Amino acid sequence: MRIDVVSIFPEYLDALGLSLIGKARRDGLLRLDVHDLRAFAHDRHRTVDDTPYGGGAGMVMKPGPWGEALSAIADAPDAAERPLLIVPSPAGAVFNQAMAQELSTRGHLVFACGRYEGIDERVLEWAAERFEVRPVSLGDYVLNGGEVAVLAMVEAVGRLVPGVVGNPESLVEESHSDGLLEYPVYTKPPVWEGRAVPEVLLGGNHGKIARFRRNEQLARTAVRRPDLVLAIDPAGLNRHDRDALWHAGFMIDDGRVVRRPDAGDTAG
Ligand code: JCH
């Protein structure tokens, strides 16, 4: 997979040289190039911002340097036919695991990191001729620019690229791939600060361990993310799952998971 990132703070992306993603780059599984937007600003002060038309607080990123930077990326000899241009924005569609899965199948991703109050809107319109343009939010809170969102998205997408995670089995069980939160994990020592690891995990009964973990997933999802429980397809629930959900304050009605009407203080 090929990834280009454009930013006025290219050093922000240095962390992508570490750990799993850094190894994947060295192994040739990911090609990640970070471009300094100011290299495409040609005045004496390498200006990338200007005052907003219509007034308002703060500055807006000028279209000129963005046009040049994105043209250079689109015209590179090994660029994809129509790369996906991801523009981090508090006004984008919210990034999630399904989006990470989809992006991991793309050959070429380009990330445009805005700063100040954002990028002149005409850049996104103009870019649609050569890119598939997608404004994406990391979540419903406000950052100072796109770089932190790109760090998160490149890590989430990069680890789904075949070969990046050494043991692909660890991708299967994870949170959100099956719509449930993950089960709690424990390691040695068996007792720490007077707290014992759940007994079932110390025995070798794999059926009982699987059931314990599934119950923990259902119970903590019910408390922490009831929205996810309401989105479960009951077709994927066995008798034990339904019982666990009942105890957590939910039931199946008319082929859907709903809150148990009599659930007072059991569900979160
Ligand atoms: C960004 C900003 C508009 C502040 C500038 C570029 C993404 N999920 C998420 N939160 N915040 C971002 C993000 C991404 C790119 C930029 N800013 C600062 C922009 C605002 O309007 C209210 C406020 C923030």
Write a concise synopsis of the structure shown.
This protein has 268 residues and is α/β, with parallel strands linked by helices. It has nine helices and eleven strands.
Notes on the structure:
The chain is α/β, with parallel strands linked by helices and 268 residues long. It is built from nine helices and eleven strands. α2 (63-74) packs parallel to α4 and α7 packs across α9 (239-247). The longest helix has 19 residues, at 206-224. It is elongated and about 70 Å long. The two termini are 41 Å apart. The model has no long low-confidence stretch (mean pLDDT 96). The structure holds ligand JCH. The site of ligand JCH has 18 residues, from β5. Residues 88-90, 114-118, 137-139, 141-146, 149 line the site of ligand JCH.
Strand and helix layout:
Layout lengths: L1 E6 L11 H8 L4 E6 L12 E2 L9 E2 L1 H12 L9 E11 L2 H7 L4 E5 L8 H7 L4 E6 L9 H12 L10 H4 L18 E2 L2 E2 L9 H19 L1 H5 L8 H9 L2 E4 L2 E4 L9
Parallel strand pairs: 1-2, 1-6, 5-6, 5-7
Antiparallel strand pairs: 3-4, 8-9, 10-11
Helix pairs in contact: 2-4, 7-9
The structure holds ligand JCH.
Kindly list the characteristics that best describe this protein:
two-stranded antiparallel sheet, 31% helix, binds ligand JCH, alpha/beta, five-stranded parallel sheet, 11 strands, 268 residues
